[in-house]
Amino acid sequence: MWLAAAAPSLARRLLFLGPPPPPLLLLLLSRSSRRRRRLHSLGLAAMPEKRPFERLPADVCPINYSLCLKPDLLDFTFEGKLEASAQVRQATNQIVMNCADIDIITASYVPEGDEVPRPGIEPRLLSVKARSPNHWTARESPTDCVFRCFDNRKQFSDNFEIHATGFNYQNEDEKVTLSFPSTLQPGTGTLKIDFVGELNDKMKGFYRSKYTTPSGEVRYAAVTQFEATDARRAFPCWDEPAIKATFDISLVVPKDRVALSNMNVIDRKPYPDDENVVEVKFARTPVMSTYLVAFVVGEYDFVETRSKDGVCVRVYTPVGKAEQGKFALEVAAKTLPFYKDYFNVPYPLPKIDLIAIADFAAGAMENWGLVTYRETALLIDPKNSCSSSRQWVALVVGHELAHQWFGNLVTMEWWTHLWLNEGFASWIEYLCVDHCFPEYDIWTQFVSADYTRAQELDALDNSHPIEVSVGHPSEVDEIFDAISYSKGASVIRMLHDYIGDKDFKKGMNMYLTKFQQKNAATEDLWESLENASGKPIAAVMNTWTKQMGFPLIYVEAEQIEDDRLLRLSQRKFCASGPYVGEDCPQWMVPITISTSEDSSHAKMKILMDKPEMNVVLKDVRPDQWVKLNLGTVGFYRTQYSSAMLESLLPGIRDLSLPPVDRLGLQNDLFSLARAGIISTVEVLKVMEAFVNEPNYTVWSDLSCNLGILSTLLSHTDFYEEIQEFVKDVFSPIGERLGWDPKPGEGHLDALLRGLVLGKLGKAGHKATLEEARRRFKDHVEGKQILSADLRSPVYLTVLKHGDGTTLDIMLKLHKQADMQEEKNRIERVLGATLSPELIQKVLTFALSEEVRPQDTVSVIGGVAGGSKHGRKAAWKFIKDNWEELYNRYQGGFLISRLIKLSVEGFAVDKMAGEVKAFFESHPAPSAERTIQQCCENILLNAAWLKRDAESIHQYLLQRKASPPTA
Ligand code: BES
Ligand code: ZN
Prior knowledge:
- The protein has 29 helices and 32 strands.
- The protein is α+β, with helices and mostly antiparallel strands.
- Strands 7-4-10-2-1-13-16-15 form an 8-stranded mixed sheet, with no helix packed on it. Strands 18-19-20-22-21 form a 5-stranded mixed sheet, with helices on one face.
- Helix 3 links the parallel strand 19 and strand 20.
């Protein structure tokens, strides 16, 4: 019997769980405009109630954990022994630690100096007999626990070993209080705890992950995922980022299994009484936080190299797939020296392992020295992986390795500063990929992947400041969102640009050196950067991290003789229009200004530190355009006067504006339309000006926005007309690209072709549909296998315009697929199917054994984004299967993601009420903010539709009657 009650729900939110989603999923990211008053009247703007929470008392803290764990890979239990040397700072007769879903058997404390070595005496602990090579009997009774470990453990005089007389579990708080019969005096000592736990199937704590051997046998590995607050599910500990200690870890495992932990192996010896079992000991770790501890026991192959700076790097893959680790290995081996140079601090451990885990909730996790990944975030097959997977793997490796310094060596003091970890890693991963793969033009992709996403979320009334006070685990889980990641990364990018690379690097080195092995807060980074640059970093950055939202800069111009006068003003940008009210927040905004004379360099840089400012640009001829936000680096949106905008538009058509500026301009206009500041028809006209556009990322952002509009218009009876518009916009580029790569083409051409063909195919473009069907047939018949880059668009096209037979073929391909990447590729497009029965079939499939638990979300999300009927069916499915879904993720962050994907596409007021009501009676604590954001978005969509549907319809009809000439 477990002494701990069922765990309170925990949830985490992340940003990316795979390569950029196909157009289908992008359709879901919709929102529009609605006045805030309306939201308040529905009571949607109220923030979640704070749950009571207290940090651990500081009277006792750990110095070193000696931890030995013995997982049972057949019974899914584990036994553990902890000997923590600890310091009692203040006399006490109790120790409060974190502990969840763990059954403590015995606990005692031995003050230092009271240890009495008794050589020759049998260890007090009993060993447990093995039944089979990888199967141990569970303990018979709490007293004869546990197994033999620490056989060099010192013996303690019974007089001085103070046995805990009570374990008081506070389940809601995930804590245990150990009570002792006498006072523990200040000084050091050893806390010994024997415990047992379950290898759960919830992808958190110490859990089991299912895999199939090359011979088809189903087996389980034991793996960990501790961030943010789940180390306490594997062993009782002080599970807070600021309570650092060293770790001596040993694992008792079947001898034919691979056993890994943060450090290198220092000893491997037979386990007494069982020749099939070994005890593997790992070297002592540096001082570190509990959330970064990791262990893995399973069957894996690996590839290995040594990086230029002497670190042993291995990539562990499923058995038989070592080849698929080579790409990540190369990236990791290039990345380590890159960071070493950038930070001017060496990687402190002797080795780093990167391992692919079959069942894995997040994308990847930066455990120090043992980074865990979803298979799709690490494995690349030279023939069967597509370009976007390659890019995704490079970004994720770059991200997690950055944490080895930023996060692991210097750790946030509390989760309030989580953004510092995640925002920074989400920025520098691009710097690293740009270094390794300049041909990816990754910084432009940053703008459409992170910057614009962050602005979409941050324009909502239910956004939150980057720095947010959090306590209870469900509140911590909630902030792994686009604000911490993408807005965090975007404001760091803006700051880097404001400071300049040289001083930025210098400041980073000062920060990492000063706080290494310690903890830091946001202010500490600002101080180092301020010292390095001499600029007012804290004053500028506080306006970005301590208040939510961002400004809309309105600009108008006047020609005064040879000069151009600009009048700038700032106001908070809201998804429902500019902020109304007296108390408008203000930002200190670094603004760059360029002109057509030199479109790729800033003619002027200013720091806008007031609500209004005038700027004079010298020597600007009347025929020259003037643009704000060169490179789309500043975290603001721009609204130009009509005259200024008019002068910028030709720069889209003739490509004289740089790509990332074309992208930013289009994206700003689109969001101004959603907010009701300009008309959507104006934006459609601007989109038509992209006829000559060659850039993948510019197309990708435009495509995403057209997807949002399509989803919105699926609520009307002129959905087909917007599909015509999509076909018209994408046909010219589709024709230019064709189906097959041309000599000399590269990574971005492959991405662009996939994007455009997918878009055309989905919209029902006749020639694309026919060719997709032809190629699909050849693929299925084995005549001509589709190249990896063409699979998603072809699968999407044939499914959307196919029947039950097509779906069955896809499901067969799914079953046959050996690579998880291919399975995911198929799972994500299944929702494109249109008929109600087939949609139901896909939903049932989502919860079947065929789909890995973490991937169910994208199948259901795909259905919701696939069609009008799919949207309704997915929502009904979630309501009908709520208990199972919630239980599957234990309220984990995947629940937030599922909710977001499934309800955000609605555009009818009453649906906001329905969603709200459902979650009032089916609470999901860590998804509360997401639910509020979704409801806000539904109302915004509804308002957008009411406001603009008619004029859009008229425009599309009139266009059809007299098509524009290119
Ligand atoms: N630290 C996170 C992993 C994590 C996420 C733990 C959420 C707990 C909750 C890791 O560094 C991370 O950010 N992973 C990302 C991938 C990254 C490339 C954006 C992820 O899992 O999505
Ligand atoms: Zn991260």
